[in-house]
Specification:
The chain is α+β, with helices and mostly antiparallel strands. It has one domain. Helix content is 32%, strand content 18%. It contains 2 helices and 2 strands. A two-stranded parallel sheet has the order 1-2. The longest helix is centred in the C-terminal third of the chain and has 14 residues. The N and C termini lie close together (12 Å).
Length: 56
């Protein structure tokens, strides 16, 4: 199943979870916990192409 993990670089509490993201697409953004709000442009730049690629 295609999976996209969009991470906030300032949210260090969840960084260890990246180890479970083997084989998944991981994108770092200059944000904290609320990536979609704090780094909306980076979030959209990662999410929109991913969704278009995997829409079926």
């Amino acid at each position: 199943m295609p999976t996209l993990l969009v991470c906030g670089q300032r949210e260090t509490r969840f960084m260890p979870l990246r180890a479970f993201a083997a084989g998944e697409q991981v994108v770092d953004t200059p944000a904290g916990h609320a990536v979609d709000l704090e780094a909306a442009a980076a979030f959209n730049a990662a999410t929109c192409p991913f969704l278009r690629q995997h829409r079926e």
